[in-house]
Amino acid sequence: MPELPEVEVVRRGLERWVSHRTVADVEVLHPRAVRRHVAGADDFAHRLKGHHIAAAARRGKYLWLPLEETNQSVLAHLGMSGQLLVQPHEAPDEKHLRIRVRFADSLGTELRFVDQRTFGGLSLHDNTPDGLPDVIAHIARDPLDPLFDDEAFHQALRRKRTTIKRALLDQSLISGVGNIYADEALWRARLHYERPTTGFTRPRTAELLGHIRDVMNAALAVGGTSFDSLYVNVNGESGYFERSLDAYGREGMPCRRCATPMRRRPWMNRSSYYCPKCQPAPRTRAAAPGPSGRG
User: Fold this and answer.
1) pLDDT tens-place string over residues 227-264
2) Are 204 and 197 in contact (CB under 8 A)?
3) Is 61 a catalytic residue?
4) pTM of the model
5) 207 in active site
6) Residue of 2, 5, 66, 133 with catalytic role
7) 160 catalytic per annotation
8) Catalytic residue flag (residue 2)
9) d(CA 166, CA 193)
């Protein structure tokens, strides 16, 4: 699933090619692509027609297009294989084209939502006073947001009483960090994914946040991470950060710091990649003796 850098690359493309245009027509080619819009495909198309699209917005992994002169936004769920493509009118339809949005201008391009696995989709939602679609009001700010509060995150981390990778993937604590960039940041910080959060000091939290921001900015600079053809930007181009990954996907390969073979372990229906030498597992405390003197 795309993480913050990949979604931000798409947002920037929409900002350039879609924002500030007026919707002329919407064609829904597969009902599953608007299943989160409970009123159905015809209502979705009708409500968008004639509206002017404001600046594309993002929080964490969530992307939306606000509609000017309304208090609503089109929220994009990319899922595992969703793509938002800007294509010339005359370009052949993609095999898995689900939604087409045409505009009332002479630029000659349209917005297409393509989704092979149909896990994603578009839906229309009311906005909160902060300008977020109401269904994502619980999502925390992401570490690249200028208003992200490092101290509040540190305090929340200490109170959570969990392990660090679980905390990084908790979108109510910090948004935009997924499995790939969590493993990358933890490798850079020399932290095992099962390290308890209760022991984190402010300097340790600040160091980890710095690594998260560094790895995400590095990924942004090269268009994000593409392991297959399913993640692309609005022009259909892949990102190249997979060539720079230090941890994720490198099982059995030498650690770039110490040459120890990298390991992969199953973790919450995913995998965690780490260096057993640079990222030692936390020590487990022996159980305290019971009243009878037995543990």
Assistant:
1) 444 445 555 554 434 556 899 989 999 999 999 999 99
2) no
3) yes
4) 0.85
5) no
6) 2
7) no
8) yes
9) 8
